Q: What sequence folds into this?
């Protein structure tokens, strides 16, 4: 718990999220929420085109509604710290080794500040590179999915 000063110079206790934070019960954060935080933080880094999923993620995405988890894997180690793996597509022409530490730092900062839990590892896997022209082409094409296609049944 942390103390926050009030207008009359009194201190008010503000609960933080941790194991001892609530006498009313346990507070847990679903890994899909952490995956969403990781995805959004990664996309904020200059040079990142997208968070990519593997072929298996693509197949699983057909049967699942968890699109925010695609390309991100979140686990916890034996002490409860997050271990994160991110698959990314980076912009062509950049020094790839210079972008990845920025991804690691941004993800760790955001996850730790939003969940109050430590991040032990952030592994970044570069799945490809894309030119700006390819990126613009993909953004301009309407996304079609199986659900949008006409059905005969």
A:
């Amino acid at each position: 718990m942390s103390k926050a000063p009030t207008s009359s110079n009194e201190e008010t206790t503000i609960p933080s999220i941790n194991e001892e934070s609530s006498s009313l019960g346990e507070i847990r954060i679903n890994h899909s929420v952490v995956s969403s935080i990781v995805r959004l933080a990664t996309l904020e880094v200059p040079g990142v085109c997208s968070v990519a999923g593997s072929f298996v993620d693509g197949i699983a995405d057909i049967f699942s509604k968890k699109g925010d988890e695609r390309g991100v894997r979140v686990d916890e180690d034996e002490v409860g710290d997050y271990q994160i793996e991110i698959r990314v597509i980076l912009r062509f022409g950049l020094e790839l080794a210079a972008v990845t530490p920025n991804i690691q730092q941004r993800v760790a900062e955001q996850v730790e500040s939003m969940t109050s839990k430590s991040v032990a590892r952030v592994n970044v896997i570069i799945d490809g590179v894309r030119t700006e022209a390819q990126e613009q082409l993909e953004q301009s094409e309407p996304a079609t999915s199986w659900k949008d296609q006409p059905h005969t049944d």
Remarks:
- The beta strands are 2-5, 11-14, 48-51, 72-76, 82-91, 119-130.
- The CA atoms of residues 47 and 98 lie 10 Å apart.
